[in-house]
Write a structure and sequence with these properties.
homodimer, mainly alpha, Methane Monooxygenase Hydroxylase, Chain G, domain 1
């Protein structure tokens, strides 16, 4: 029975990591399409989003089954709850990647703005956060999870800068308003992906240590 | 033991509904502040967001405890899983209300745009969705939950219209760009709150019937 539980839990972790790799691809493709002007990649983002939605339902169902059959306790129960939550965040990231693809498509169809401001560096930071959040889960790495929380502040600061620069541009060149708005919405979605990576990091800490550091309740540790 | 479980479950439902009422107040106050030019209400939105964050942790912890102590099965297990998910959506709604409050504060500090376009009717629809999502949970009302899914399409259409109208305004009056952007971001947050209400409706259907209709897997029924 115990052996069986370990097997089921390992399968579940693998399912979640597979879902995570779909999300990484999806975010990466949406950004690549924007930065390298490759609209052909956007269809793949949509296909991945569909796949991620199926992953989400499968992971959830596997969690429910495992809870029902095995009634895990303590650390194992926390881990299954964390997986349920992480799969929700991953699914939302898939939605955000789809949103980025939508605005990238609109943007690439119009006249480009001279430079993409800080969006490339913002995108890079966010992608690292997503990768590290999944690594932290895989390795149960509390320290790495904590580092992700710090990176989120940097991403938020970049987003503020992008907003500021683009609002200025809109005022200077009213014919670029729609294009600038597309970029603002892309920056907003990148920021949200960073937020979800942060949620995952918090869930990893919760699963590993039993601490609930969300909402700053224990963040000073 | 069984009686004890029913008591715990009822407590948990009450906790969730209390959290829901905080979210309703929070969204309502953020909108009221914007529509009636009452910045004094915005502090309350922030206080409620803190309260909602605490509610979220308490509901999650109660779910974990209940799963650990009672190992519920079948319908009861599904209900607890649904409550875990609903509390996450409610917490995110609290964040969105806080975002609306932030942009409302910026907006109200500047020169108002002549009219708020379709934002008032969008806000009203979203508030009804939130209320109905909680009612559907309370009454285990599958039909009401399904109606919420339809309303979400109406909200999305209104958001597109708001975006369109405000982009036009930005082009006509570049000095109103920042103000129009505040309203665009408010519309976006309202749309997101509608999405979360939709998620809750889907979780209610999942808990009541065992169907997983998310991502359209069973939507044709």
């Amino acid at each position: 029975m115990h052996r069986h539980f370990e097997d089921e839990l390992n399968n579940l972790k693998e399912q979640l990591l597979k879902m995570g790799s779909h999300v990484e691809s999806s975010v990466g493709l949406a950004i690549k399409a924007l930065l390298e002007n490759k609209t052909s990649l956007l269809k793949e983002v949509h296909d991945l989003e569909q796949k991620i939605n199926r992953d989400h339902m499968e992971v959830d169902e596997a969690c429910v089954q495992l809870l029902a059959r095995q009634s895990p306790l303590a650390a194992d129960l926390r881990l299954v709850i964390a997986i349920l939550k992480i799969s929700t965040d991953l699914e939302r990231m898939g939605d955000q990647a789809e949103n980025i693809a939508f605005n990238a498509k609109e943007y690439l169809a119009g006249k480009p703005i001279k430079q993409l401001i800080d969006i490339p560096s913002m995108a890079e930071k966010v992608q690292v956060m997503v990768k590290e959040a999944l690594d932290a889960f895989l390795r149960k790495d509390r320290e790495l999870a904590k580092k992700i929380l710090e990176k989120d502040d940097e991403v938020d600061a970049l987003k503020d800068k992008v907003f500021h620069d683009l609002i200025e541009r809109m005022a200077q060149a009213p014919d670029q308003i729609e294009q600038a708005l597309n970029l603002i919405l892309i920056a907003r979605n990148l920021e949200r992906i960073g937020d979800h990576a942060t949620n995952i990091a918090e869930d990893v800490i919760f699963a590993v240590t039993g601490d609930d550091i969300r909402h700053g309740s224990n963040i000073e540790e």
